[in-house]
Design goal:
Length: about 325
């Protein structure tokens, strides 16, 4: 299964290590577990109700909508630190602005695949990226595990402890990288800052900045200069000559971000997984690790082999090698 391509370019970028084979993930939601590490304890008092929720095969925005419905508030008064994968078992925190009421959120458990783990209060709402980390436990299979010498797989896993390229992976770009196509149309509109809802603008800016960052990181991986420092998240700041050379083919995106005065930033080129452990049994590789907010587990998996997302496949024979466990 090939990675999405946009205007003839893979949206992610080249791997730092050659693929050992195929890596099949998400054969079942329980094979892809993510637990958000909040990093602080809600105070127990304040205008915002904090809920820790475990969900299975449900996306973050849908759960936020259900919370708003049960609480009788606007959806924009429901906040969360980050979006989590839909085809997975995930736990994360939400906050609801409820200064004068305590709704019975027990009704939410009627929603299939949703479980409330904790409820508390806090003085401030939960902001994007405010959590400390995401803890992953993944079970993967495929020819990169069952058709490779154990020594080769062990060496690759050892190398990943030293870090992997911090790409934005395909989740950031929508199905078939459609968010980039929509961003290009958006930047071509006159008076575009008033033409779309704020949420849509953020989606387009995010996809464009992620794609441009990946182009810069891809160039760094090609030269082997990706393990230290940070690469630019393009905004309205002037690009360096080296950045301009890499991004010249995407002037429609860079000029659109600059014209809209998008805030520039930076992102580490390399991410190093914390608490990294692995186990191979019955041709299944189990990985446990923590990543900082904004880093993608699939960026780690693609450094083992070609990632095949089995949640998008019907058959268990979607992998070219190895039998289903």
């Amino acid at each position: 299964m090939s990675e999405p391509v946009w205007q003839g370019v893979a949206v992610v970028g080249r791997q730092a290590h050659p693929a050992l084979g195929e890596v099949g993930m998400r054969r079942a939601p329980a094979d892809f577990r993510v637990d958000e590490v909040l990093g602080f304890e809600p105070s127990g008092n304040g205008e915002h109700v904090f809920l820790q929720i475990r969900k299975t095969s449900a996306n973050t925005a849908w759960v936020a909508g259900q919370l708003a419905r049960v609480a009788g508030i606007r959806q924009r008064d429901v906040s969360y630190a980050g979006r989590k994968d839909r085809h997975a078992v995930t736990s994360q925190w939400f906050s609801c602005w409820l200064p004068r009421s305590d709704p019975d959120f027990a009704h939410l458990v009627d929603a299939e695949g949703v479980e409330i783990l904790r409820v508390s209060r806090h003085a401030n709402k939960l902001r994007r990226g405010e959590h400390a980390a995401n803890r992953f436990r993944l079970r993967v299979s495929g020819s990169a595990i069952d058709r490779v010498a154990p020594e080769a797989l062990s060496a690759r896993l050892g190398a990943l402890q030293d870090g992997f390229p911090n790409y934005f992976t395909e989740q950031r770009f929508g199905f078939g990288a459609d968010n980039l196509t929509r961003a290009l149309r958006f930047f071509a509109q006159p008076n575009r800052r008033k033409a779309r809802k704020h949420r849509d603008r953020d989606l387009f800016y995010s996809a464009a900045r992620a794609f441009l960052f990946n182009r810069l990181l891809d160039a760094d991986v090609q030269t082997g200069q990706w393990r230290e420092g940070a690469a630019t998240l393009v905004g309205d700041a002037r690009l360096s000559p080296a950045e301009h050379r890499v991004l010249a083919p995407y002037e429609s995106l860079t000029s659109g971000l600059a014209a809209d005065r998008s805030q520039p930033g930076s992102r580490p080129r390399c991410v190093r997984p914390a608490h990294f452990t692995t186990e191979v049994a019955d041709n299944v590789l189990t990985l446990s690790f923590e990543l900082p907010p904004g880093a993608y587990a699939t960026a780690l998996l693609r450094e083992i082999g070609t990632v095949v997302d089995l949640s998008a496949c019907d058959g268990r024979d979607a992998l070219s090698g190895g039998e289903a466990p």
